[in-house]
Amino acid sequence: MVIIPRLYWLSALRNSIKAIASLVLITLSGNAVAHEMTPTYPTFTESFMVGISVTTLNIFNKRADVSYYEIGVFTDEWEPVPFVSQYTVIPMKYLDTVAFDVYVSNLSLGSVEYICSISQIKAGATVSSKICSRIK
After folding, report:
1. Where are the domains of the chain?
2. Burial of 75 per CB tally in 10 Å (0-12, 13-18, 19+)
């Protein structure tokens, strides 16, 4: 009869440790959040200029140590693709959201695979983040 309560106690202790460990991991993972760029799968549409397509993206800055994000357009082999945008480097304050358009020539459009934002870290910061949206 003594064995059953002891096993129950060990099982409850094990479940409590798992719950605490999960809570710690969830809490710590929130600090590792970089920035957000949406939509995840943007699509290009014809712009007002002949032979040029456009898509609109949004960046949300979750990092207090980052004030600038660089924009890049790449092929599936990570080769840069020529593009035009209001910003090549976007200045952003902490917790700001910025919408921007990316214009690509229809001749280059077939090779576009990714649009990426790369954090430009301040002196003393240790982690740079890169977020990419994949073209549908």
Report:
1. 1-32, 33-134
2. middle
* Residue 68: how many other CB atoms lie within 10 Å: 15
Q: Which residue has the tokens 């969830």?
A: 26
CB 90 within 8 A of CB 69: yes
* Amino acid letter, residue 117: S
Query: Tens of pLDDT along 36-70?
Result: 888 999 999 999 999 999 999 999 998 888 889 99
Fold entry, domain 33-134: Immunoglobulin-like (2.60.40)
Cα dihedral across residues 28, 29, 30, 32: positive or negative: positive
Closest CA to 73 of 122, 49, 37, 126: 37
Question: 100 vs 45, 89, 90, 117, CA distance in Å?
Answer: 14, 11, 9, 11
What is the pTM for the complete model shown?
0.71
